[in-house]
Amino acid sequence: MQRNLIGGEWVDGPRASRNINPSDTRDLIAEYAQADGPQARAAVAAAREAFAGWSLSTPQQRFDLLDAAGSEILARKAELGDLLAREEGKTLPEAIGEVARAGAIFKFFAGEALRLGGECLPSVRPGVGVEVTREPLGVVGLITPWNFPIAIPAWKLAPALAFGNCVVMKPADLVPGSAWALADILHRAGCPKGVFNLVMGRGSEVGAVLLEDPRVDAISFTGSVATGQKVAAACVARMAKFQLEMGGKNPMVVLDDADLGVAVTAAVNSGFFSTGQRCTASSRLIVTEGIHDRFVAAVVERLKALKVDDARKPGTDIGPVVDEKQLAQDLEYIAIGQAEGATLAAGGEAVERNADGAPGHYLRPALFTETTPAMRINREEVFGPVVSVIRAKNYDEALALANDTPFGLSAGIATTSLKHAAHFKRHSQAGMVMVNLPTAGVDYHVPFGGRKGSSFGPREQGRYAAEFYTVVKTAYTAA
Ligand SMILES: NC(=O)C1=CN([C@@H]2O[C@H](COP(=O)(O)OP(=O)(O)OC[C@H]3O[C@@H](n4cnc5c(N)ncnc54)[C@H](OP(=O)(O)O)[C@@H]3O)[C@@H](O)[C@H]2O)C=CC1
Ligand SMILES: O=C(O)CCC(=O)C(=O)O
């Protein structure tokens, strides 16, 4: 049984959760202690107590901790990638890539701990100096989802610690293994008692404590819109700082002048890799008339060739859906699409056993064509390998359709026209815009986040992370 880390001690919980491999549901990875409300409150108390010391730690101490954690993550990327693929179901190369990303994030924020600066300005009044500095917030609660079990915890945790905050982290109950490995690495790297606390358990119990406890100064959340709204309401009620990363209904526009190979590769990668379980996945392919039929035929051909199988098996392109509940949601949306009159041009069937006969949550990547913008499959996030094609008359209509969504995380365009690429970058109502690239798969050193219903609060990642994890102070001194 893997335990929670509270105040520097490994602590059992009143319950345990079973971490099951979605590629082979007979495979129990391990049992993980689930914390309860009192334990979550103890973790908050430990973080509060540790804050006085950690907020005064030197940048060198923070650099050393984060750099050591980053080195170990990178050195163990094959082993940790295997664990990640086994618990979440993304393919081994994707999982190893995610672990490498987490290692690089720790290294990046180790450097940021040294680079955090301020400003020194003359006052408008004679004989007065002004300093603008950034201070840590205090105790930060991190609530993370299942689809990036190590990268998302890393990109919240590393900046929180780099800038002198103490942390209580609640990972998604479905994927405790990668988060536990991160806690173990930080603990052995010498993280002082209480500076980082791991409380695995249910969102409705452990997550709810983080939202309500007045000793938690800020919450960073990634997950569904429904839970994001609860986080927002709870934080506003007690005036805590918060940041939300939620859903997407990301468009990829394909214009007549696109390179067909580039467009198909970007669309298939964006829509179906990582089993479509990325908030940056393209679920709406908006295609102009002149290329529509060739593009659809080429995507269908590509989908037929994709191997849907055990995430850890060499040669697998698409692993399983994360669990039964998500598979049921995906299948429900496939049925909704059919009922709405869309044409299911490829896939959409659940596959109960993989090529070796192991039971798992497999789904053949589904492509809908002849869809209309008002259909639910074009408005609601499915979060699976389910993608729609929408016809557009021309670029102007394609841009309008791309922006016609309550979300605004990521958007892409496939075109060889510099004019249309430049116009799309400027006029797309999304936080991240990709030209001739998949909408998913982002760099770790630049801002990540969206507009409209996708995100709330300051951006994550890169230098911009300081905006959320610090508070600004302006000091005036008479000379
Ligand atoms: N944008 C994104 O990156 C993601 C979007 N999603 C979307 O969300 C849908 C559902 O996925 P799901 O995992 O249930 O998403 P949730 O939003 O429920 O889960 C995200 C995190 O919030 C926690 N949580 C749940 N309820 C509460 C609460 N009341 N208070 C505090 N924390 C809470 C969860 O804990 P626990 O899991 O332990 O209950 C988990 O750690 C998906 O189908 C997809 O559409 C999901 C994951 C990522
Ligand atoms: O596309 C990526 O690289 C990141 C996606 C992500 O953060 C998410 O799906 O939650």
UniProtKB/TrEMBL annotation:
Which residues constitute the signal peptide according to the record? Answer: none
Query: Which parts form a coiled-coil structure per UniProt?
Result: none
CDD domains according to UniProt: ALDH_KGSADH-YcbD
Question: Do you know which PROSITE patterns this protein is assigned to?
Answer: ALDEHYDE_DEHYDR_CYS (PS00070), ALDEHYDE_DEHYDR_GLU (PS00687)
**InterPro entries from the entry?**
Ald_DH/histidinol_DH, Ald_DH_C, Ald_DH_CS_CYS, Ald_DH_CS_GLU, Ald_DH_N, Aldehyde_DH_dom
Query: What are the protein's UniProt keywords?
Result: Oxidoreductase
Question: Catalytic center at which residues?
Answer: E245
Under the heading Gene3D superfamilies, the entry gives: Aldehyde Dehydrogenase, Chain A, domain 1, Aldehyde Dehydrogenase, Chain A, domain 2
Matching entries from PANTHER family are given as:
ALDEHYDE DEHYDROGENASE-RELATED
Q: Family assignment?
A: Belongs to the aldehyde dehydrogenase family.
Q: What is this protein called?
A: Aldehyde dehydrogenase family protein
